[in-house]
Amino acid sequence: MSTDISPPSIETAAIEWREGVPCSTRFDDVYFSRDDGLEEARHVFIRHNRLAERFARVPAGGSFAIAETGFGTGLNFLAAWQTWEASGPADNACLHFISAERYPLDREDLRQALSLWPELGDYAAQLLDQYPPPVQGAHRLVLAAGRIRLTLFFGDVLEAWRELDFHADAWFLDGFAPAKNPDMWEQAAITALRRHSRPGTTMATFTAVGEVRRLLTNAGFTMRKTPGFGRKLEMMAGELPRVPEAGGHESPTAPHSIAIIGAGVAGSLLARNLAQRGVEVTLIDRAADAGMAASGNCQGALYVKLGVEFNDQAKLGLSSLLFSQRYYAQSGDHCWHPTGLIQLAYSDTEAVRQARFIARNDYPQAVLRPIDATEASRLAGIPVNSDGLWFPLSGWLEPGRLCRSLVRHSRIRHCFGFDVHRLTPCNGRWHIAGNGEQDVVADRVVICAGHLTPELIPLRSEFRFRTIRGQVSHLPEPSLNNPAVVLCGPGYINPAHKGTALTGATFDLHDHSPALSVESHRENLSMLASMVPSVFSGPAMQLDPALLEGKVAFRCTTHDYQPVAGPLTDPAGRTLEGIDLFTGLGSKGLTYAPLLAEYLADRITGQPQCLPASLARRVATQRCHRRDASASETIGA
């Protein structure tokens, strides 16, 4: 297999089947025992980490984290998942499984390998359904309605442990034998392993090599040899000793109560995510229901414009896109329409940009691929004059409907019609005052209020947020040659739904009027006629802008057009206790919000984080303070 692969793709495993067992041609070693790979996983990793009994003790709303060196076929993961389900963990408990893999199997090799174990068929089917394309970096898979969270890092193990934020309760030291793959067992890897462990963390490994035992012992683990499996006479197991005062299950716990201000896509996704983890949520919005403001459009496209350079900004966009595609396919109910999406090379400048993008990046075709105007026309079902980029797993959503579906949960208390005026810290809790209403009191608060966020931040400090008006136009279906896919350029057009197709949106920097504008409708029609002339069944200007319906919303963007998600800090970098921001998503909220809601929920509940450190820095609140801001203070403190 060629190794001439550019980011963001990653080289997949070279597999050869010998006697019905997958073997790596790169390392000349088997992925699991020829005797019985599943029973080997249970013997080495499940029993020697005492997982069945420890899983049963995880409390309601708690979590347990297993970290693994070498995902391989995923057999160890599925064995742990099966044991978790059989152990009967408490309500809303979550098993996190974090695994690094430098050479991931492609989907077909993974399917063939796991087909050897019919008793794992249901688990394997869920894994295969969400298994990510071979793209570098961290991938979070949410399985079994949130009871299982798999963080797969495709890349070098040392990079994985440097980038990921977690503490393991148990380690599966897998991977090929030390003699075959020495890099995975070097001193730096063992040091990183110790850094990601807490007192009482256990580990097991199939190897009994003396040098590995010495390294683990020097790192502080108490190691012992024990009988191996099958033809392996010995293996090793060990534990990081507890400090004398430590005891019981040590996973951090979530706050008892949390208030989320703003019931748009960001707030609704976060509320649902936390509720599924057992957290009691109060969702506050001044509107009468969820998804009524900027998230209230009847249609919204799922896309992100990936940069020519594969830098952290492009990585965040790609990670968000892949996660959102998986999330909506799994949890979008009837709100998700996976039609596919074409980003058109609508101008000479954009055509040059897309040509540079393709030349400098190697994306798997499951993510995107370049297409010419002929193929674009075939996919769209109408004549298209431009080449473009085809995103087969994208599409469009009904955002308002999605929000209202998300917030219907027994642990989400609705506090609608509540116009927040002030947030005040008092005795370790936050008091949220409204317009004559009784205060809402919570242990923690997250501000998800879009362009209204700066008014609510309880700091005397200036933030680099911008409000941009956007108006969409509702086009009657009879006036259109309806495209079968989403078409994007300087704006976008969705396939018609229930007699209407949405197009837009304008970017009005200096207009702050909430009223529909005939001029904005005219701008949207002109944009669409230029981008895809064939979309109109007659001359575009035969549509009277004064008769069109639409919606005005106000986007919140940041100075660097990157979203904000995380603890609120002051200009000096000090974190305010118990308050987070989740805003600045601009026009790409449908793409960014699912992954960032997952990240914030990880942080709030103290569970392993889905975002690597480099991307967490991209969304940190600290960067949004004005550089000349003086020392600030908490209002009302």
Automatic annotation (TrEMBL):
Region (FAD-dependent cmnm(5)s(2)U34 oxidoreductase): 261-637
Family matches, as InterPro entries: FAD-dep_OxRdtase, FAD/NAD-bd_sf, MnmC-like_methylTransf, SAM-dependent_MTases_sf, tRNA_MAMT_biosynth_bifunc_MnmC, tRNA_MNMC2, tRNA_S-uridine_synth_MnmC_C
Signal peptide: none
Gene3D superfamilies: D-Amino Acid Oxidase, subunit A, domain 2, FAD/NAD(P)-binding domain, Vaccinia Virus protein VP39
Cofactor(s) the record lists: FAD
Main location group: cytoplasm
Localization: Cytoplasm
Catalysed reactions, semicolon-separated: 5-aminomethyl-2-thiouridine(34) in tRNA + S-adenosyl-L-methionine = 5-methylaminomethyl-2-thiouridine(34) in tRNA + S-adenosyl-L-homocysteine + H(+)
Location of the region described as tRNA (mnm(5)s(2)U34)-methyltransferase in the Swiss-Prot/TrEMBL record: 1-241
Domain FAD dependent oxidoreductase: start-end pairs: 258-603
SUPFAM superfamilies: FAD-linked reductases, C-terminal domain, FAD/NAD(P)-binding domain
The keyword Zinc appears for this protein: no
Family of the protein in this entry: In the C-terminal section; belongs to the DAO family.
UniProt-listed PANTHER family: SARCOSINE DEHYDROGENASE-RELATED, TRNA 5-METHYLAMINOMETHYL-2-THIOURIDINE BIOSYNTHESIS BIFUNCTIONAL PROTEIN MNMC
Free-text function comment from the UniProt entry: Catalyzes the last two steps in the biosynthesis of 5-methylaminomethyl-2-thiouridine (mnm(5)s(2)U) at the wobble position (U34) in tRNA. Catalyzes the FAD-dependent demodification of cmnm(5)s(2)U34 to nm(5)s(2)U34, followed by the transfer of a methyl group from S-adenosyl-L-methionine to nm(5)s(2)U34, to form mnm(5)s(2)U34.
UniProt name for this protein: tRNA 5-methylaminomethyl-2-thiouridine biosynthesis bifunctional protein MnmC
Gene: mnmC
